[in-house]
Design brief:
Blueprint (H helix, E strand, L loop, with lengths): L4 E4 L8 E6 L1 E9 L2 E7 L5 E5 L5 E5 L2 E5 L3 E8 L6 H18 L3 E10 L11 H15 L9 E7 L4 E8 L5 E3 L24 E3 L5 E6 L2 E2 L2 E2 L5 H15 L7 E7 L5 H8 L7 E5 L9 E7 L8
Parallel strand pairs: 2-4, 9-10, 17-18
Antiparallel strand pairs: 1-5, 2-5, 3-4, 6-7, 7-8, 8-11, 9-11, 12-13, 13-14, 14-19, 15-16, 17-19
Helix pairs in contact: 1-2, 3-4
Length: 307
């Protein structure tokens, strides 16, 4: 099976790009230089490229762009600005799931969602993130795909209204949802966090492959810990990551989302000793107004030990 990797690089220098995510501007999902691309307004020069070991077929339809290689698929879509997001999120997700079903990649294992005005109220006074979560849950319930195993996910802010999203899926079953024993599974959060709980797992383990870790923050049980304390939140976030992947220095595709631009240098200093590879930093709002930092990454496949 093709190896799945994420690199921060110029797509022109990457063989077999499956999908591109740019963080410097906002454009509709498109096919760019033969590769499906999603551009997000996080004011960063970073470009992330998902790549595999096999040639990729690309296309678009029903507002969704996609690339697939026989084992994996990447697809991206968008939800336009709206006073209420749940219906648009439900529709866009179902269109993406329909494209994946038609292509033959029914097993979604990783998703990213970039939500403009994520902590602001919608037209009904409901926080936009909670509005988004309602639409996502409704899409999962109506999906033609077998979503009994929830994917890993990240949900953070974007600098303009509207929602951009992308996801990864497999042709074959077998990925495993992984939870963190220090945290209540997000899909079991109490009603205080919104009318529908967030629909994601803390991580997804691919068969014989990497562990893709969801956006992780300073949460124990279901409560935010250390509100207003940047260093303490950062340390607890790293501890939560280490519960899932004890060797943090081996993590790849590490992305750190920081709420306040003035905190980035301190967060960088706190994270530098923990990670061994390249780390991308972004400034954006997070899914809870009292969270200051969120981190995601990908742990490599376990090394087989000779017997």
């Amino acid at each position: 099976m093709a190896g799945l990797r994420s690199v921060f690089a110029d797509p022109a220098g990457v063989a077999h790009p499956l999908g591109i995510v740019g963080y410097g501007a906002a454009t509709a999902p498109s096919i760019r230089s033969g590769t499906p691309a999603l551009d997000l307004p996080l004011a960063s020069a970073v470009t992330e490229v998902w790549t595999t070991d096999q040639p990729v077929t690309t296309g678009s339809g029903d507002g969704i762009t996609f690339g697939h290689d026989g084992d994996y698929a990447f697809c991206a879509g968008a939800v336009p600005p709206s006073p209420r997001y749940a219906p648009g999120v439900r529709d866009a997700y179902l269109r993406a799931f329909g494209v994946l079903a038609d292509l033959g990649y029914p097993y979604v294992f990783r998703m990213w969602n970039f939500v403009g005005r994520i902590n602001a109220a919608n037209a009904d006074g409901l926080e936009t993130y909670r509005d988004f979560c309602r639409g996502r849950a409704e899409a999962f319930e109506s999906s033609p795909l077998p979503l009994d195993t929830l994917p890993a996910a990240t949900g953070v802010g974007a600098h303009l209204p509207g929602i951009g999203f992308c996801l990864l899926a497999r042709r074959e079953p077998g990925h495993v949802a992984v939870e963190n024993h220090r945290q209540v599974p997000a899909y079991r959060y109490p009603y205080r966090y919104g009318p529908r709980p967030p629909s994601f797992a803390r991580a997804s383990r691919l068969p014989g492959g990497p562990l893709l870790i969801s956006g992780t923050a300073s949460i124990l049980g279901h409560r935010t810990v250390h509100p207003g304390e940047l260093a303490a939140q950062c340390r607890l976030t790293l501890a939560n990551l280490a519960t899932l992947a004890p060797d943090l220095r081996s993590l790849q595709a590490v992305k750190v989302y920081v709420r306040h631009a003035g905190d980035v240098d301190e967060v960088r200093q706190l994270c530098a000793p923990a990670f061994g590879g390249e780390v991308a930093y972004f400034t954006t709002e997070l899914c809870r107004s009292d969270l200051l930092v969120e981190i995601e990454g990908m742990a490599p496949a376990p090394v087989a030990v000779p017997v």
